[in-house]
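step 3/5: co-fold with zinc ion
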Amino acid sequence: MSTRMNMPNVFTLKGILKHTSQKGYAVGAFSARYTPMIRSILRAGQRCASPVIVQISQKEINKYQVAIDKFSDEFYTAIIEEGIDIPIALHLDHTKDFAVIERAIEADFTSVMIDASNNPLEGNIAITREVVRYAHDRGVSVEAELGRISTTDFIETDSDGQLYTDPREAKIFIEETGADALAVSVGTAHGPYEGKQPNIDYRRLQAIKAAVNVPLVLHGASGVPADMIMRAIHLDGGGVSKVNIATDLEAALLKSLGYEASVTDAQLSALDNEILNKAAEAVEETVRQKIERFLGSQGHAADFDHIRGERE
Ligand SMILES: [Zn+2]
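step 4/5: write tokens
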């Protein structure tokens, strides 16, 4: 572990989700996709006095041609340069390859997601358990997925078709793997919904929450109406603690630039400062709206005052 991970406001996933169930809010996990957008996420969190998670997935790393080291360096540099003192975590979203997980942990990510959900239960348990052992030895949290979250754009994962999470399997899965957070499949999908209606199976979500003792993660929140997500956060007995938001951030960025399609990290980084600032402001505003409209995490940076420096 390097010294920059010892910054008192840098937490693991386990640490940053600690107060969510008890205090009734969720922490947003925002996919920056482009290195210069990391600052926008941090600034929005700072403005709202809210904990935030900055993340990128294996597919995004490939599609946007992002270097893991550069992404991490920008995260830690921005904290210092922008005077960021809200609780934050650096998370590797959906990843299938152990080598990418190793690289992220070496680059001081505080949390990783192993997505072995395309395997049968036994295989998913075996792969996840191995990652948990490796990550925990290095002081890093692990999010795992059970069931399959479908996708419309294949950016985050390549699973098609949805397989809802079974609450009884969830209990076994968490007991057997020791994962710190569980991504559940309860009706949301990755990517833009484009006419299809998102649907959340709240009964199932409640049953999963009752069966496991770790925070639950809702993926594919872009395009889901705010009141649906709020209901998933505020379920009796506790709801989801982490909500992943990716598509909406990039949509705001591209719109502000008048672009029709994604570019690479290098192409975006090469833009004039004035143009880049406009895009950064659009992303910051989108993050702020998510925090205030449904996550409810504004002001909750203060929950961490007594555990600063504890990491988890
Ligand atoms: Zn996801």
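step 5/5: annotate
The chain has a mean pLDDT of 94.
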